[in-house]
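Hi R.,

Here's the chain you asked about this morning:
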Amino acid sequence: MVDTEQIEIARAVPAARWRAKQEGIDLSLVKGSGPDGVVLVKDLESFKVTQTIQEQTLEEQRVRASSLARKLAERAGVELGAVEGTGIRGRVMMADVERTAEQAGLGGTAERKQSALFGKTIPMTQMRKVISKRMAQSAFTAPHIYFFTDVEMDRLNLLREEIVGEFEKRFKVRISVNDFLIKAVALTIADYPLLNATLRGEEIFVHPEINVGLAVAMEEGLIVPAIPRADRTGLGRIAQIRADLVERARTGKLKLEEMERGTFTISSLAQFEITFFTAILNPPQSGILSVGKTVDQLALKDGQVISKKVARLGLSVDHRIIDGAVAAGFMQSLKKRLEAPGLTFMNL
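And here is the predicted structure, written out as tokens:
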């Protein structure tokens, strides 16, 4: 039962207060993003997503299962609560998941799981509803404009290979290309602050901190936890924070603040056979960077044919805030930083 007295005390816009009463949400538990912490309607939507993720995680934790069984269940799309465990005190084992998957016709593979969807009507989860609403709002409200550039990745890949071993010893985390991207993007935003802006009515607000979000794919959609003050944070610390955020995103343990503090987003499909794509803005941000797969390309250098590693980066921006020249300058500057990593990351 919601304490109506608490709802009255909480600072919220009328629409949010009405929605909270209708849906039984305790406003005192919702962090407001409005002026002086006032709760807005969008804060309720974000709160509900977080609650859904946490409830799903708690439900999973109630089921006793081995770590291998949990991983297999996730891959095969098997609900652990429906599996009869044969282990000690009813613990669900890997063989139990395999048996349940075979009985359900899932076969333990992602392909079989997807093929089982044909001809079915799938209800949207609360999280998917929120994502749908936000993406539609972004696509139809913010006029998008897109820019692409090819970045030579040979030097960056070589730098990573040279430092990965020592880096892992020192920081206890394996550095990824995404860590370099996060840092390079943050440094470039420092030179192009409009990429860190939000439209508020007829005013443009430039956020004081550069918090770079990294889109994390989950079964129900994308979650974008953000690395705070990435322009002022060392590369080792960025890698540690990134690894922690991604892990907790996939287990539903992120805090609402970690998902809402982002001021710019990076969305990478580099692990797939996707060379480039256009990304929809993550509202209310003004920019998002898409990263495609690194591929081999032939090129001429001093009259000789050479092979080089190339990744295509795409930038989507809100044209109400950012003009073409600013976006092009940002991409050109980012390209230079990534192609000269020795200088970019020399003291990081």
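One quick note: The radius of gyration is 23 Å.

Cheers,
M.
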